Structures are given as structure tokens and as C-alpha cells.
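Researcher: Here's a chain I'd like modeled. Treat it as a single chain, no partners, no ligands.
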Amino acid sequence: MASLGPAFRTYAPLDCRAGLRDLTVAIERARQAAGSFSESGEDAALAQFRSELSPEWDRHDEVAASCQSNHDLAVALDVIERLRYAEERAVRRDVTELAPLRRRVGQIWTNQLKR
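Model: Modeled as a single isolated chain. C-alpha cells:
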């Protein structure tokens, strides 16, 4: 008879610090990539942001498992996770609020301020 209890996953040993560095680098790469899609709309910018998180964020659970025994590194992972979600919100804000303002200021610059 099959067990109805939770299935626990085990992961190969991974260097927590290296994993945290990789997650952080992926966030920066994703942020930069999404910026080039801001004129394409929110969905395109978010899709680009999320796709650029790979392959590092595909290993998030492995990194989390490797960091759980060190309180300071587990806290660092939490902060990095919060940054990821904040950056995703910033992509949305950039597309919906800032991109139109930047276009408008560009028009003002061209039509009214440039001499």
C-alpha cells in the first residue's frame, strides 16, 4: 500500500554561497533584459524577466536546501527572494508608469526644449 505522507526531496550537495551568488546575478541579468522590453508592454517585459532568471532560479529549491543549516545564509536567501519579487514589481511599474512618462518627456524635449 502506498504511503499518503508527504514526499521529501533530497538534493545533491551544493555550495550555498555560490548558489546565492548565482541567484543574485540572475536577478540583475533579468532586470536588465526586461528593461529592453518595456516598450513591448507589461506581459512581454515580465515574460523576459522571468525567462532570464533561468537556469539559476530553476535550482532555487536546491540552494534553499543547502542554506537551511546556516541561519545567516538562510536569512540572505530570504532577502534575495524578496529582491526578486521587488524587481518583478519594478518591471511592472516601469512599463505601466515610467515608460509613458519617459516617452512624454522625450516628446517635450524634442518639441519644446531642444534648441
